[in-house]
Amino acid sequence: MNRIKGLIAFQALLLAFSALALAPSALARDLQGRMGLGYNAQFANYRESGNSTPAIAAKYAPTKDIALEGVLGVATTKPGNSVVALKLFKNLFYENNLNFYGMLAGGLVTANSNSGVDLQGGFGCEFFIPGLESVGMSFELGGELTNITGSMVFRTVGASFLNAGMRFYF
Questions:
Q1: Which residue of 2, 57, 80, 163 is most buried, as measured by CB atoms within 10 A?
Q2: 163: three-class secondary structure by DSSP
């Protein structure tokens, strides 16, 4: 039964990725060629461990509507806690101080001596306060498929800017 649920969740993530790849270009806040540095605390290792290690994140937009983010976090506590992940963003809707996007993410996570994978898909917004155009704050919603607890689990995810991250763009 868990295997069937896992396959259904994987197919849903694959469908979301296909929709993102085929979506037309959007006119969004132009971050092309800019590097954003900040944090991310939305992967399963953050929720599953008592020592809650947020990760350092670097986001880069090679085109106007596509961005990639690398996520790296580690705690040398006992038990250990870490995340190495990659996120893909596709801008879908334009606002002057906001990017509405679809996202896919995948990472290797460790928490409480358990290791696993964490796959996420969904939608989010990165907004910019007028006058602070180099600071972006994100919130996201969607689904997550992870096996860090020892069995494959699908759950819905909602992340405020405290978890989905804040970035300063150079």
A1: 57
A2: helix
Q: How many domains does the chain have?
A: 1
Give backbone dihedrals phi and psi of 48, rounded to 5 degrees, phi first: -85, -15
Residue 23's domain comprises 2-169
The CATH number that applies at residue 85 is: 2.40.160
Q: How far is CA 96 from CA 24, 31, 57, 135, in A?
A: 19, 12, 24, 14
Which contacts qualify for 60-64: CB closer than 8 Å, 24 or more apart? 60/34, 60/35, 60/36, 61/31, 61/32, 61/33, 61/34, 61/89, 62/32, 62/33, 63/32, 64/25, 64/28, 64/30, 64/31, 64/32, 64/91
